[in-house]
Amino acid sequence: MLKVGVLGAGHLGKIHLRLLQESQKYELIGFFDPFTDNAKKVAAEYGYKLFNSIEELIDAVEVVDIVTPTLSHFDCAKSAIEKGRHIFIEKPITKTVTEAETIRTLASQYHVKGQVGHVERFNPAFIAAKDMIQNPMFIETHRLAEFNPRGTDVPVVLDLMIHDIDIILSVVKSKVKNVHASGISVISETPDIANARIEFENGCVANLTASRISMKNMRKTRFFQKDAYISVNFLSKEAEVVRMQDAPEKPGEFAMILQNDAGIKKQIYFENPEVVNNNAILDELETFADAIVNDTTPVVTLSNGTEALRIAQWVIDSFKTDANL
Question: Domain GFO/IDH/MocA-like oxidoreductase, which positions (predicted)?
């Protein structure tokens, strides 16, 4: 079992603490949180060992799980890596791309592994459908959430949209060519609603919408590719695949047949891939343990996290650029 410590005992930090305590792949050594009152309350309520400083916790573990506010990710990760500790770091990887590049370089220099907490990669609906996503040419995502003050220290792009950016980058095997975006601040000091159009060199286009002031929650992505449409509902954990294939000479009585102007007939087939329920946060933590023990590549690398942040920052920078066109 790998000795692990957690930095940050907020809402998500407490979830990580509980899951690491339950995991058969980690030994939870303890945690540190600079907010003394909260830290003491968590330690008293759950019995986790509370360390007096970041340095003291880092010295006691092999893996550091960074679940602090984004602004402190860089300093926490740098301190851990320079002590030769592997790092799991929540998304976004850091505040800036420059910081992310530095973390990636340091991890390579000190020969430690790192994984970024893009948890939707472990969503069972995406897992069920991802092997069917082959060369999508149009992607549409909607990630809408009811207002919650937690997370408003960063734009909605870094809070919500970055999940979908990472998913899209994981399935589109091409470089981003261009980004156009708009964002509006309604309640927060940073944009609460954003829409982005991401264009890839291979011709794929992704249209992303994110909002944290919606009346209802939605987390849905649609992938369109040749002869297939794939829908992934990250919220309800459901997946649907609609395929079009050449129609047989004698289709069944209830077959859905489409015919174009050239007389070519296609039959529509509906599929619902089996979705195996899981705990996505536990899975991402435990696959990282496997990567460390087996010396393999983590599912979401520091490079993946850096690229997702780079595109997210491009979206944010486009707010002003596109507004001035």
Answer: 156-217
